Amino acid sequence: MCTGSASGSGADSNGWNKARGVVLKALVLIGGALLLKRVTKSTTRWDHTRIVADSLAGEKFSREQASRDPDNYFNIRRSGELLTNLFGRYLALCLIVHAVPDPFYLQFFVRFFMVKPCSKEMKCDVELSTHAIRDAEEYRNFCDRSNEQRPQPDEVIGDIAEHLTTIYLKRCERGKRCLYEGSTPGDGFPDTWNGASYCTSELAVLKNNEIHKWDKGYDEDGNQVWGVKGGPYVFKPATSSSFSDPFAPLTFPKFLEKKIEGSFVLQD
After folding, report:
1. Which residues form a coiled coil (predicted)?
2. Where are the beta strands (DSSP E) in the chain?
């Protein structure tokens, strides 16, 4: 009986070990499958849109670039406030040019960006369209107001005026610094500022939350008549140093001193 009892105990032990091994293998396989599914999960069109919209929101400054090259780049604050609705993600973009400590020169410019997925037949991920505002005065200081003092998203739809430009963004290839990059179509969009016939825009969204933006205007002969020539503006997220001297005496952009006509204020 003693021998028989020992033999039965060993069989039970071997059976338990085998069962435990099967369970462990199953758990490993299930865990691996879940991890693989998570890693290989495709990013949806609206995921791309959300990433770009979130990257454009918040405050960013070109102060560092303006400090290095004040003759060509100005200290500009970009402040983007995200507004959402059923038709897409609208971004109210406010630009403030810091020049001299004079309220007259502390200009506020507001544009609406519509951030939405590219249509399936297009070879891009995100479509970023810029629109003018029907009543610019109503949106003065928009980005510095509280939510209660701003026009609400459903009101914004009715205030969006003419379409200005559209940039088509694609997700950057692996190994590049950027997340998304793109530009307007090759022939750009109509523009009459400072003798221009058309304008182009390039945009890059970087992994460190920087935004690189390059706007240029050309005449009928293809000569650049406005916009920087050395490269894009580099806007970096706001830091404590961004506010240390907001009214640094930088050269004020000459084209902004001209009389502003119509709904166009600053191409961005």
Report:
1. none
2. 58-61, 75-85, 88-98, 107-117, 126-133, 160-171, 178-183, 189-190, 198-206, 211-218, 224-226, 233-237
Stretch 231-253: mean pLDDT: 61
Number of domains the chain is built from: 2
pLDDT in tens, 110-160: 788 889 999 988 999 999 999 888 877 777 777 778 878 877 777 777 888
26 and 54 co-located in one domain? no
Please give the C-alpha separations between residue 127 and each of 55, 169, 192, 257, in angstroms, as whole numbers. Answer: 14, 6, 24, 32
Assign residue 20 a region (left: φ > 0; alpha: ψ between -120 and 50; beta: otherwise). Answer: alpha
Residue type, position 157, single letter: I
Residue 238 has pLDDT above 60, yes or no: yes
Cβ-contact 257, 85 below 8 angstroms: no
33 and 76 within one domain: no
Domain of residue 10, residue span: 1-41
If asked whether residues 28 and 111 sit together in one domain, one would say no
* Alpha carbon separation from 17 to 6, 53, 184, 243, 246 (Å, rounded): 17, 54, 65, 66, 71
The DSSP H or E segment spanning 54 is helix 45-56
pLDDT digits (tens, 9 = 90+) for 155-212: 777 888 889 999 999 999 988 999 999 999 988 999 998 899 999 999 999 988 899 9
Instruction: Tell the residue number behind the tokens 């309220």, with chain if given.
Output: 103
Looking at the structure, tell me whether residues 12 and 133 fall in a common domain: no
How many residues does this entry show for the chain? 268
Based on the domain organization, do 28 and 73 belong to the same domain?
Answer: no
